[in-house]
Write a structure and sequence with these properties.
The protein is mostly beta strands and about 250 residues long. The chain folds into three domains: about 70 residues, no CATH class; about 35 residues, no CATH class; about 100 residues, Immunoglobulin-like. The chain is about 0% helix and about 35% strand. The chain is built from one helix and 18 strands. The strands form six sheets. Strands 2-1-3-4 form a four-stranded antiparallel beta sheet, with no helix packed on it. It is globular and about 55 Å long. About 15% of the residues are buried.
Length: about 250
């Protein structure tokens, strides 16, 4: 892949923290480690947490948010299934020793009664094992992931006056909410999408969340949603607050 002029942004700054030089390439299943330079410091990561965005050709390629930590904590790494991040289990830093990789299935069939899976597993000793399975199975539902113009922020309540999350306690910062709606015409898997404002990530949607066409999802700032109406999907902001400013601000779904 050609990374020439791709840009790395930290905390959604207007100017990139780093621009990849011309003729920068990365081979398949390879890794590119970017160190902070004492002279230029293109990458300044805060221990209080931050968001990191990779943009190529004016399109967001990846966007992640990491939590606060302290000096001496191990690095954060992708989980084997690429579903989120976890702290490195053994060492502080191991750029040449990634965890075992599992390539996601490459061959799929639309037949609802059979499925062909080809897996390639590489262990830390660089030994590769391939296994092919061909068997019948029940109908398989594959949901597409969200793309631009398929989800909209439909409603924002920044200054509530009642107990909107129905937890029995009125608190303005906990009862404020954002409503997103699927307008794609399809069932959408919105797992791991991030809701961010112009300061930081506010909510990461958990795995396994699927929205049907025109179905809403409400994210409250805090409290609990156990008594909220069950026919509408709802969640509590994973960051602990939506931080909606009554004077107005920008909200982004990534």
């Amino acid at each position: 892949l050609d990374l020439s002029e791709c840009k790395l942004y930290i905390n959604e700054k207007t100017e990139p923290n780093f621009i990849f030089p011309q003729n920068t390439y990365i081979e398949p299943v390879s890794y590119f480690v970017l160190f902070s330079s004492l002279e230029k410091e293109p990458v300044t990561l805060s221990n209080s947490g931050a968001t990191i965005e990779l943009i190529c050709n004016e399109q967001t390629i990846d966007y992640i948010a990491y939590p606060s930590g302290k000096n001496g904590d191990p690095s954060w790494q992708r989980k084997d299934n690429l579903n989120g991040f976890e702290k490195h289990p053994l060492t502080l830093f191991s750029p040449n020793g990634p965890p075992p990789k599992i390539n996601l299935p490459q061959d799929k069939t639309t037949d609802s009664t059979s499925i062909l899976i080809t897996d390639s597993i590489e262990d830390p000793e660089q030994e590769e094992v391939q296994e092919e399975i061909n068997e019948t199975a029940p109908a398989v539902s594959l949901f597409p992931t969200a793309e631009p113009k398929q989800l909209i922020i439909n409603e924002i309540l920044a200054s509530p006056s009642t107990d909107t999350n129905n937890d029995g306690v009125f608190k303005s910062d906990e009862d404020e909410f954002i409503e997103i709606v699927n307008i794609s015409g399809l069932s959408l898997d919105i797992s791991n999408l991030i809701i961010s404002d112009n300061t930081k990530s506010r909510h990461v949607i958990p795995s396994g969340i699927v929205l049907e066409n025109l179905e809403p999802l409400i994210i409250f700032g805090g409290g609990n949603n156990q008594n909220f109406q069950t026919e509408i999907k709802s969640q509590i902001a994973s960051d602990g607050s939506l931080g909606l400013n009554n004077s107005g601000e920008e909200q982004i779904i990534i």
